[in-house]
Specification:
24 strands, Arc Repressor Mutant, subunit A, Rossmann fold, about 700 residues, about 45% helix, six-stranded parallel beta sheet, seven-stranded parallel beta sheet, 5 domains, globular, alpha/beta, disordered C terminus
């Protein structure tokens, strides 16, 4: 019997009569079979490949056949824009079988929430943070609302697995497990996961259901790719404007400042441009999405905010300034095109540096070989453990340490933390006044209340920091977007200019008490500086692919003449210096260049390892090389130092790595860092900065490299 024939009759009729479908896609057949059999699943299919229906049709079939008491199904998206985008589609699917859906996120009004709580819908669409709000709210009867919950569907699961938000979501789901009378079925949807079996194991958590990966064979598809090289941003934007003329295109940029500059240049060239990034106001972003969705031939210049599955209608082109940092990101962006019959998915890279040209080639070649990054789940996710302790102590007017451990130890992202380490954390937080132990229960302490009690603890509900931001307003009070406090602190009334929404603005005055910056249109202003950034690490595999490209003579038909010239020049520069897999060493003007092509974290680890041996050296790592400067340094001295990295005992010296970790820059990676013991803070930063195992493996594999260099 086909999967379609096993759907509830009411759903079968609706699919044929309302949607006009005559068959299901392969991913929908396979997913339907798995979900109707009660399995947990990770469902893989390209963007617009039918994943939503693959999960929702069997879900709705079960809800129609056995109507739940309260919420029967959860659809969770990583961002509320994706929820808004899917609301109409899932509203149609629920309505056509006599069910209802409700969208709950930060913009949902209190009146709408009260109506929903009085009469819950069968399908609830929400974000992880809003789900947390429901569970801690005194006005929500969580047991009544979720007591009959059967299934949780997580869209774009690759965007949260292996992150703090993923750990948070898994912990929240385990709290739902305690409320529901069912072993909640779990489904993850994605277009780009390199290790779906591991993600499935993570997703299953404490569920006793069997699981499967739904990954139907993909039809070979043509891709239209072009990598160009331009001398500067202005030329890049002008050529992009010419290419996108009369078409609908998304232009992805790697930062907000670049997206603002590109938008300004394109607007000068006569292109209709919208800007879409996290600092642009909600109203401006929605205007861009609406105009675009309803057929406007224009270009949305954006950051990763439009990388996820938000539907802005049929696209003609995807443009990319420089190159994204991962194959998964490249595939997500390219997947926004090629959705119409007869259309070819496409991406044009506009690169201003030779490194960007090489990176674009590497991304394309890795994607052609069907390679995508693995998602690594951190089983010692300290920030979220602290967050969940605070949230649970707030939700139930206190939580017993034993109950907290019983819950948290079930979450995959905490299973590397021992019970004794958990007890030490509790003791520290009590000593720090973040928690108070009274009558056997942990309750929120004054330290945590001071930090997170504002706006009825809204700051606590989100795992990520919500940095203080200032609203940017026009002279007539119209909201234009937001700026971070660090950026605002550098503005001078009547003098400073900055770009926002693709336009230049002059600061009239800053109202710090109301956190508002009033601006007026300005002549062509200075480029904004959006503040400091954490290091942007590229992966080992991507950097090694770039090394392979440099060491080969292969030609790539998707390069324009300028990009081909850049590739040729780079190959010429490293000829005789680097070799596949191991790289090489160059000695220039008393400076050693160790060309590792090992990626950012391995190179950062090697830097700190070398600095521990030779503290007087000035060592500058990036993703591809390590530069060493020192008075009268010789290649023999460098080789002798690197030789020490090939000794196993170097890497097993725990005192050495404790010392190195303690001296790392004190990056603020989580808003919960101030509540952590010093040892945990050090572990958090060192796990972000260092890859000791990878650096050790690389050092051993490159054993003959330095000695043979000249």
């Amino acid at each position: 019997m086909s999967v379609f024939a096993r759907f509830a009759p009411r759903l079968q009729e609706a699919i044929v009569a309302r949607l006009g479908w005559t068959s299901l896609r392969p991913v929908q057949e396979l997913a339907g079979e798995a979900l109707l059999a009660g399995k947990n699943a990770v469902v893989l299919a390209p963007t617009a490949g039918g994943k939503t229906e693959a999960s929702m049709f069997p879900t709705l079939s079960n809800l129609v056949s056995d109507q739940p008491d309260g919420v029967g199904a959860l659809y969770i998206a990583p961002i509320k824009a994706l929820l808004n985008n899917q609301a109409d589609r899932l509203g149609t699917y629920t309505e056509m079988v006599g069910l209802r859906r409700f969208v709950w996120h930060g913009d949902t009004t209190s009146h709408e929430r009260k109506v929903f709580l009085r009469e819950p819908c069968e399908l609830l669409m929400t974000t992880p943070e809003s789900l947390e709000v429901m569970l801690v709210s005194q006005t929500v009867d969580s047991k009544a609302l979720f007591g009959d919950l059967r299934i949780v569907v997580i869209d774009e699961i690759h965007a949260i697995a292996g992150t703090d938000r993923g750990a948070h979501l898994m912990s929240v789901i385990e709290r739902l497990v305690r409320l529901s009378k069912h072993d909640i079925q779990r489904v993850g949807l994605s277009a780009t996961v390199g290790n779906p079996d591991e993600i499935l194991r993570w997703l299953q958590g404490s569920s006793q259901r069997s699981g499967c990966v739904v990954d139907p064979p993909k039809k070979p598809a043509r891709r239209q790719l072009l990598v160009t090289h331009r001398q500067d941003l202005a030329t890049l934007a002008f050529d992009a404007a010419r290419m996108s003329q009369g078409q609908k295109s998304l232009f992805f940029c790697q930062s907000r400042s670049v997206s603002e500059a590109v938008a300004e240049h394109m607007r000068r060239a006569g292109t209709k441009v919208f800007v879409h990034h996290s600092a642009v106001s909600k109203e401006e972003r929605q205007l861009a999405e609406q105009e675009f969705h309803h057929g406007s031939n224009a270009c949305i210049v954006c950051t990763s905010t439009l990388e996820l599955g938000i539907d802005v209608g049929d696209l003609d082109r995807v443009l990319q300034a420089e190159a994204p940092g991962s194959v998964g990101s490249f595939l997500q962006r390219m997947g926004r095109t090629g959705r119409r019959d007869g259309q070819t998915a496409n991406t044009t890279f506009f690169c201003t540096t030779s490194e960007s040209v090489l990176q674009a080639i590497a991304l394309i070649e890795l994607a052609k070989s069907h390679w995508v990054e693995n998602i690594v789940v951190n089983d010692r996710c300290w920030p979220v453990m602290i967050h969940q302790l605070l949230a649970m102590s707030l939700a139930g007017n206190g939580v017993a340490p034993e109950d907290a451990w019983d819950h948290l130890s079930r979450v995959p992202d905490f299973q590397g933390i021992s019970r004794s380490e958990f007890n030490d954390l509790i003791d520290w937080m009590i000593q720090d006044n973040s928690l108070i132990l009274t009558s056997g229960l942990l309750i929120l302490g004054p330290q945590a209340e001071r930090r997170f009690g504002r706006r009825n603890f809204m700051e606590l509900y989100a795992v990520f920091s919500s940095p203080q931001s200032y609203t940017v307003q026009s002279t007539d009070g119209r909201p234009l977007g937001t700026l971070s406090q660090d950026f605002v602190d550098g503005l001078v009334d009547g003098v400073s200019c900055f770009l926002l929404g693709g336009r230049a603005w002059l600061v009239n005055f800053t109202n710090h008490s109301e956190r508002a910056v009033q601006v007026a249109s300005a002549p062509r202003g200075r480029q904004p500086t959006w503040g400091g950034f954490l290091p942007q690490f590229l992966s080992f595999d991507l950097c090694q692919k770039i090394l392979d490209i440099l060491c080969s003579e292969e030609t790539y038909p998707y390069l324009d003449p300028a990009a081909t010239s850049e590739l040729d020049q780079q190959r010429q520069q490293v000829r005789g210096i680097v070799r596949p897999k191991v790289g090489g060493v160059d000695f220039i003007n008393n400076e050693v260049h160790w060309h590792t092509f090992a990626g950012g974290r391995i190179n950062a680890t090697l830097k700190h390892a070398l600095a521990d041996i030779a503290p007087t050296w000035q060592i500058l790592p990036d993703n591809f090389r390590i530069r060493v400067r020192a008075d009268n340094i010789s290649i023999n001295e460098f080789n002798a130092t690197v030789h020490q990295l090939r000794q196993p005992e170097f890497w097993t010296d725990q005192d050495r790595w404790i010392r190195i970790a303690a001296n790392l820059p004190n990056y603020r990676l989580s808003k919960f860092q101030p509540l952590m013991p010093a040892t945990v803070q050090t572990e958090l930063v060192s796990n972000f900065m260092l890859d000791v195992a990878g650096a050790q493996t690389f050092s051993f594999s490159s054993s003959s490299m330095a000695a043979n260099s000249t």
